[in-house]
């Protein structure tokens, strides 16, 4: 793979976009983060509700629950995107992504330690340039971790229910080249597109991949997953540095 800049934004094929995190962007949430992957920007907010869903009570399921919601604000894309409420239902993509965010976070949390609480994670895309679901997962973990820390500080939780960190990144084949962290221009015309979710300990939560009117080989599959692993190791390091700074400042 060439190390020279070949992408429209000047990045090398195996280079992430600039990633930043800003804490406490939504002061009424228990924990919140504005996450940016290049021009993609998502507000991730975690809110604790002191009750569990009715189905848990009816079935006698102990512990707490974690669920996620995702939306793209109308002005987040080049052409105005109508709100789901205006259409009267969630579109299939929205449902898929919020379920993915929820699964990703539930993979790293001990719900028994959450107590009789529901942790709501809301991800609102304010600017979309590819990778909104991967940015949402990455920021959602940080918002959840900040929310949990507040509960620990307030002695509302006895111990941290989060067992690990989690992050996500996209990889794909565009113009016959394997790329990390695709922006919109690359993503919309990619021959192969993957989203990879992984814990900080390097365990996979989910690998979503498909050829877009194309196929891919076993070697390409292996190479793309390895490229995602490289990127996610970097993202996990950024998450750790951010949380260290935030928790030391408390």
Describe this structure in words.
The chain has 250 residues and is α+β, with helices and mostly antiparallel strands. The protein has one domain (19-248): GHMP Kinase, N-terminal domain (Ribosomal Protein S5, domain 2). The chain has helices at 54-59, 84-87, 92-106, 132-153, 184-188, 218-248, and strands spanning 19-23, 31-37, 40-49, 65-72, 118-127, 166-174, 177-180, 192-199, 204-211.
Question: What amount of the residues lies in strands?
Answer: 25-35%
Fold-level CATH name: Ribosomal Protein S5, domain 2
Mind telling me the C-alpha Rg? 18 Å
Order the strands across the largest sheet as they lie in space: 1-2-3-5-4
Overall form = globular
CATH homologous superfamily, by name?
A: GHMP Kinase, N-terminal domain
Count of DSSP H/I helices: 6
Major sheet summary line = 5 strands, mixed
Average pLDDT rating: 93
State the helicity in percent bands.
25-40%
Parts with pLDDT < 50 across at least 5 consecutive residues: none
Task: Give the H and E element order.
Answer: EEEHEHHEHEEHEEH
